[in-house]
C-alpha cells in the first residue's frame, strides 16, 4: 500500500552546467519559440536565455515558464540540437526556488 504513495524524485533532463552550456551555444534563431504551443505573449530569445540562468525573472518570462508543459515541440526545430524544454525546466526550478525564498 505504502508503495502507491512513494514519492519518486523528479528527474531533470539536464544538469545546470549542461543548461548553461546549451544556452551559450544558442544562436538565437527563435525556431524553438515559433514551434511552442504555449507561448502566449512575445518574449525575445535573449531575454529568455538570460533569465533562465541568472538575475531576476520578469513577469512575462515567469508566466511562460509556468505555462510550459514540457511537450518537447521546441526541440526538433532547433538547428543546433539544443533542448529548450530542458532550459524551461530549469526556469521552473528557478521560479520554485524564488517562491520558497531560496
Ligand atoms: S516544452 Fe515548453 S517551451 Fe517547449 S514547446 Fe513545449 S511548452 Fe513550449
Ligand atoms: S531553436 Fe535552438 S538555437 Fe534557435 S533560439 Fe531556440 S534554442 Fe536557440
Automatic annotation (TrEMBL):
Q: Iron-sulfur among the record's keywords?
A: yes
Q: Give the keywords, sorted.
A: Iron, Iron-sulfur, Metal-binding
Enumerate the Pfam families for this protein.
Fer4_7 (PF12838)
User: In its keyword annotation, does this UniProt entry include Disulfide bond?
Assistant: no
Q: Where is the 4Fe-4S ferredoxin-type domain?
A: 16-48
GO MF, one example:
metal ion binding
Gene3D superfamilies documented for this protein:
3.30.70.20
- InterPro entries (UniProt xref): 4Fe4S_Fe-S-bd, 4Fe4S_Fe_S_CS
Q: Write down what this protein is called.
A: 4Fe-4S ferredoxin-type domain-containing protein
Q: Per the UniProt entry, what species is this protein from, by scientific name?
A: Ktedonobacter racemifer DSM 44963
Amino acid at each position: 500500500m505504502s508503495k502507491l504513495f512513494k514519492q519518486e524524485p523528479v528527474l531533470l533532463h539536464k544538469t545546470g552546467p549542461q543548461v548553461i552550456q546549451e544556452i551559450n551555444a544558442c544562436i538565437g534563431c527563435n525556431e524553438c519559440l515559433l514551434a511552442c504551443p504555449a507561448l502566449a505573449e512575445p518574449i525575445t530569445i535573449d531575454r529568455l536565455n538570460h533569465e533562465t540562468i541568472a538575475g531576476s525573472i520578469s513577469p512575462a518570462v515567469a508566466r511562460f515558464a509556468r505555462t510550459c508543459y514540457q511537450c518537447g515541440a521546441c526541440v526538433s526545430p532547433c538547428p543546433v540540437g539544443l533542448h529548450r524544454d530542458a532550459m524551461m525546466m530549469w526556469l521552473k526550478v528557478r521560479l520554485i526556488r524564488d517562491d520558497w525564498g531560496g
